[in-house]
Amino acid sequence: MRTDRLVAVLLLLQRREQVTAAEVARELEVSERTARRDLDALAMAGVPVYSTQGRGGGWRLVGGARTDLSGLTAGEARALFLVAGPASAAAPAVRAALRKLVHALPEPFRVQAEAAAASLVTDPRQWGANRAEHRPPRFLDELQDAVIRGVQVRLGYIDGKGTGTMRTVHPLGIVAKGPSWYLVTRTEAGRRTFRIDRVSSADPTDDPVTRPADFDLAGSWREIADEVERRRTPLEIQALCTPRGIGILRIGLGDRLDVGGATTDGRIEVVIRGRDEYTLAGELAGLVEWIEVTGPPNVRAHLAAIGNALVERYR
To answer: What is the CATH number of domain 233-314?
Structure first.
């Protein structure tokens, strides 16, 4: 991600008296054009960095500005170097730069910081999932830059049916959900969300974004995610579940389960959401020991048909 690169460039400037765009490009394994754009972005963000032209020129921090790590607390040092460990999602260049900064820490914190960097490993794959590597989508950097600079984007997009369109959007924020990335925007039709891996082109304009005064990305994403879940699971069924089975339902159904109150016979009322009647009946057919579906009638009929088929097959 571009944020990772900007941090890495800043740390590189602090380690060296002067760097060229070519040196930054080699260090971060990007093009020289991207390196120059990142250096310009640091200057636009208020970092005291400037360039000198001609032979022997390059980029420097004004006055040799450096980050004083002596003011870090022990907890802050540990938190910082968790980013440098193998569990981090940061780019390799960022992790390498942070590990080098360990040597700038006060001696009492150095051992704990080094331990923090090696204290945690994360494996984002679920059990049974394949080992496919999920790389950031092609236009993520350009869209993130447009969000930060607050400029509109001429966006090419291919929807789920393969239809391509072009439109101008006001980018408001970017969200990562699992391996997928989404761009939240304002358009002429209102708020829209685009999967970034379906973006076919992204051309920033010079026109400023019109951002709603009360816009909050986290709150907006919660609304979007809730609406997507409602569309994905429009069917609701009612059921009764034994107390012992509630935990099993939570594991299998997650947010699609709403737990109500207890009935006179000790069972618990639940509402379960699903995509369609037959699919949901198939999910619940193996839970007959704990759950009784009370409605709608078609789901009960599907369960009975599944039961009859199982008896016929295995009797």
So the answer is: 3.30.70
